[in-house]
Amino acid sequence: MPDKFTYSVREERRDGESHFFADFVNGDGIRQETEITREIYKALEDCRKCEQRIIRSDERHLERSLLSDEQLVERAVKPPVHMEKAVSFSLDLQAALPLLTETQRRRFLLCHEYGLRYEQIAGIEGCSIQAVAKAISTAKEQLKKFFFDEG
């Protein structure tokens, strides 16, 4: 990674003593080297490590920026929905929910609106996973009937 940095630092041991150097290109494009103190060496080394972390982070995230909108949508957990369509669906769902029993409605919403798994819902409700699955399955059938019959 040295070519990504505008400077480098090094430690050299001479006669049992440490000497610290900074190597850089000056404003005229000429490579320079100068001896520096331990404190400056440490500060520059800390900056270099920080820059390396930023570069690695940028490289990790670069792949995401190269994806097309379509690819990003495919990777999304919940793809974006047009606002009017979302509002319309929400209103339709609110109209359909009273058709469900209290248990079906609660379990359906916990699963589909709050993203809980059947096991989590069963733990909350103190019932079996099969009971949760049956209630949600029945709720889905009722909602399908409502949406397809209503049109």
Describe this structure as you would to a colleague.
Helices cover 60% and strands 15% of the residues. The longest helix has 28 residues, at 38-65. The protein has 151 residues and is α+β, with helices and mostly antiparallel strands. The two termini are 61 Å apart. Helix 4 (102-112) crosses helix 6 and helix 5 crosses helix 6. It is elongated and about 85 Å long. A 3-stranded antiparallel β-sheet has the order 1-2-3, covered by helices on one side. The chain folds into 2 domains: 2-65, no CATH class; 83-150, Winged helix-like DNA-binding domain superfamily/Winged helix DNA-binding domain (Arc Repressor Mutant, subunit A), CATH 1.10.10. The mean pLDDT is 82.
Topology (SSEs and partners):
Blueprint: E1 7-14, E2 17-25, E3 31-36, H1 38-65, H2 69-75, H3 83-96, H4 102-112, H5 118-125, H6 129-150
Antiparallel strand pairs: 1-2, 2-3
Helix pairs in contact: 4-6, 5-6
Describe this protein with a few key phrases.
single chain; elongated; 2 domains; Arc Repressor Mutant, subunit A; three-stranded antiparallel sheet; alpha+beta; 60% helix; 151 residues
> Could you tell me the mean pLDDT?
82
Beta content comes to 15-25%
Low-confidence stretches: none
The coarse silhouette is elongated
**If you consult CATH, what is the topology of the largest domain?**
Arc Repressor Mutant, subunit A
Instruction: Count every beta strand, where a strand is a DSSP E run of 2 or more residues.
Output: 3
CATH class call of the largest domain:
Mainly Alpha
Q: Reading side by side through the largest sheet, how are the strands ordered?
A: 1-2-3
What would you report as the Rg, rounded to the nearest angstrom? 31 Å
Number of domains: 2
By DSSP (H or I, 4+ residues per run), the number of helices equals 6
Distance between the termini: 61 Å
Task: State the major sheet.
Answer: 3 strands, antiparallel
Question: Looking at this structure, what is the CATH superfamily of the largest domain?
Answer: Winged helix-like DNA-binding domain superfamily/Winged helix DNA-binding domain
Structural class of the helices, strands and pairings? alpha+beta
Helix percent reads 55-70%
SSE string, helix = H, strand = E? EEEHHHHHH
- The CATH architecture of the largest domain can be given as Orthogonal Bundle
